[in-house]
């Protein structure tokens, strides 16, 4: 229905998932270019197959259905408007053919419900099975009716095709004429590997076909083999810049690995070429293979051709450790801000997706760049050295940070990327941190509440030396040790602890934060006592009226806890 535009949108959505929310604005810009948006409002009108749930009928609906998919959204969400026609189609087909229901919750009305379920972006699609929300059942696949349908149906049936004849294998799955996704065949008889194969299939069935075939053939049994589909001739013509491996059949060698991630990661990079030119479609695949990604941004096509072989060789050499991708700067120039680099092309940079760390070749100052009369030339030795340094752990990451503040106001101390790690660890005091984004409305709304909490603890002799309150604009600072995924996020680093921080995960409201501090601070500091002692309750309720209401759990809320 949406043709190529749909792909564009799905990449935009993918950006949203792949990068911290601080960069979400970019996505909005991209999406707003899309003209094909069909629904004016993301909330489904009456009379479709989608069930509308609210706080009052949510629990009973979950209890009376074994398998359901929920969409959590708000009326104005652009992504949801785009998704809605597909979701309606999926709901009709699922309900009529499989008796599986899809429902929708409007988080602008039932915010507490959405908070309770940990909804941090819209739309969130979550599957509930046997009356519980399953952790891995977040739907993150392509947002088409067919893919959503397949996802739900596969929650019931195992996505592994179990077959019993070599003929079936060859005719149906390994037939080059009909093969369109990579096929992974497990030929059986590997100790402890069955559950790993099943788990990988459950997670990745949208992208690969998983076949289990117990071969009575000595040469094949005990093997796991990956078959790439042939490249269509027209695609070969279009993508003659792609550097592909010489072969299209690969064997998984690490069958003694006992964790599913090793196997999944192998699948996710084995489908990739050694080097390629990014487009809307393949970019998603690189993001999914969470390997560090080396970017070569170029302006002129001949630049690409000049470096193609060089990067192809690096891609081959670092297979499984790093992917290499070229980006046309004319199209993707704004992407460099995710890499903390300036728009000076060509450029070479590495993004370590696991830790959101960025590395790049040095760039010119703005003055130098302006004065530049010739094209910048990237030195192969410099790039090779950066890759090697990255691999041996000696490369220096580029950290985005504001200046360390020279003066502080109030009882909340402002910190930045450069001093975050030093400031959050205190042997004697509990440290609470608010991670916010200046552009995020919810972050701003929470600020006075947070400041009041800090004032309260600072004003009492018992507590003032036991706890400190910090805040940091996580959209202007890279926090390498703590990747923030939503705003505002509150975390506590208990006094003396070297463990990862404990993250607050209910609605950002005063009583929730006080409870969180009481439970998780080293000293178990009780803010409710302070509220009582200083009679702070009344003003507070007025100030944060709407929020306070949300956090007094009703019976309905309590019932959801069991989800
Ligand atoms: C066993 O499988 C291999 C690889 O598919 C094939 O070359 C060989 O002919 C098969 N052997 C028998 C006895 O079927
Ligand atoms: C095999 O898997 C283990 C994890 O189970 C991993 O640490 C190791 O690096 C893998 N070996 C190879 C050769 O990829
Ligand atoms: C890391 O790699 C760089 C670049 O090749 C090299 O100069 C450096 O000596 C290496 N350091 C270590 C500790 O291996
Ligand atoms: C810090 O907290 C104390 C105690 O509540 C309060 O008296 C003081 O005004 C606060 N400081 C600022 C600058 O708000």
UniProtKB/TrEMBL annotation:
Family the UniProt entry places it in: Belongs to the protein disulfide isomerase family.
Any one Pfam family match given in the protein's UniProt record, by short name: Thioredoxin_6
Domain named Thioredoxin: residues: 28-158, 384-522
Name of the molecule in the record: protein disulfide-isomerase
Signal peptide (from-to): 1-22
Catalysed transformations (reactions): Catalyzes the rearrangement of -S-S- bonds in proteins
GO terms for cellular component: endoplasmic reticulum lumen
PROSITE patterns for the chain: THIOREDOXIN_2
UniProt keyword Zinc present: no
SUPFAM superfamilies: Thioredoxin-like
GO biological process terms on file: protein folding; response to endoplasmic reticulum stress
Organism phylogeny: Eukaryota, Fungi, Dikarya, Ascomycota, Saccharomycotina
Keywords: Endoplasmic reticulum, Isomerase, Redox-active center, Signal
